[in-house]
Amino acid sequence: MKVTGKKAAPIGVFDSGVGGLTVMREISRQLPCENIIYFGDTARVPYGSKSQNNVIRFSEQIIRFLQTKQVKAIVIACNTASALALESVQERFAVPIIGVVIPGARAAVEVTQNRKVGVVGTDATVQSGMYTKVIHKMAPDIVVLEKACPLFVPLVEEGFKEHVVTEEVIEYYLDSLRNTEIDAMILGCTHYPLLRSKIRAFMGDKIQIVNPAYETAMDLKKLLKQQGIENDGATRECRHYEFYVSDAAEKFRKFANTVMPFDVPTTNVVNIEEY
């Protein structure tokens, strides 16, 4: 992809696998002129069971790869990497980098009426306590209940989102949260919106399900505008999307075509350990 100026430069989006596609989908809707490079670390998914040091190392490698594509901004479309690596990589790299935790927390603070919020995420995200910390910075009075749901990511990655076993796993993890007084629940992993309808069906209509993807796209829009680098379409270099993975390109491409509102014709494999 040849770029003639900063405005036409692409946005980099990355995740441990296919989950970040839910964020890319929202960015493509809210910022329709932007070019996007997506990287899914399918060789090393899931991140939720990895140590913080490894998640930081993976994130740095991916950012170095994305910089070879002249990206103007990067979205960490992964809650685990946002919770464990965002501050570290923001200090290390000059390119603007945002995550999904702060936008998701803000949305939950805005919608909760009774000041009780649930968070579902990976082991690593929940153990980091990042959502609780961020919510309490915004609103110290809110009670936050976090619940790790480690099997959700492999169920999505392996194509089980419509399978009956997924409903059983949702019940196993979320039964305790359903019996609390929460009125908002953050899908604290970008894979989880792909299970949203089943999660909503189990949790019931009284609980607002918060998907951080929309809020993240809005934060990105604001950032690009503030820096004067939003793509206004003047050069006609817009809506160009590229997809890269660290393994299983064809499996990823087929899955992406069930998520994205446009055709994903090719996915390229990158040896990410070289970066």
The number of distinct structural domains comes to 2
Q: Find the count of extended strands (DSSP E, 2+ residues).
A: 10
Largest sheet: 6 strands, parallel
Total helical segments: 11
Termini distance? 20 Å
Low-confidence stretches: none
CATH topology of the largest domain, anyone?
A: Rossmann fold
**Whole-number radius of gyration?**
18 Å
Mean pLDDT level: 94
Q: Percentage of helical residues? A: 40-55%
Judging from the principal axes of the Cα atoms, what is the shape? globular
CATH class of the largest domain: Alpha Beta
What does the model show?
- With 275 residues, the protein is α/β, with parallel strands linked by helices.
- The protein has helices at residues 21-30, 52-67, 79-92, 101-111, 123-128, 130-138, 152-157, 164-178, 196-203, 212-226, 249-259; strands at residues 11-15, 36-40, 73-76, 97-98, 116-121, 143-148, 184-188, 208-210, 241-245, 268-269.
- The protein folds into two domains: 11-99 and 214-274, Rossmann fold (3-Layer(aba) Sandwich); 101-212, Rossmann fold, CATH 3.40.50.
- The chain is 44% helix and 16% strand.
- The strands form two sheets. It has a six-stranded parallel beta sheet, sandwiched between helices. The protein has a four-stranded parallel beta sheet with strand order 6-5-7-8, with helices on both faces.
- Strand 9 (241-245), helix 11 and strand 10 (268-269) form a beta-alpha-beta unit.
- Helix 4 crosses helix 10 (212-226).
- The longest helix is centred in the first third of the chain and has 16 residues, at 52-67.
- The two termini are 20 Å apart.
- The mean pLDDT is 94.
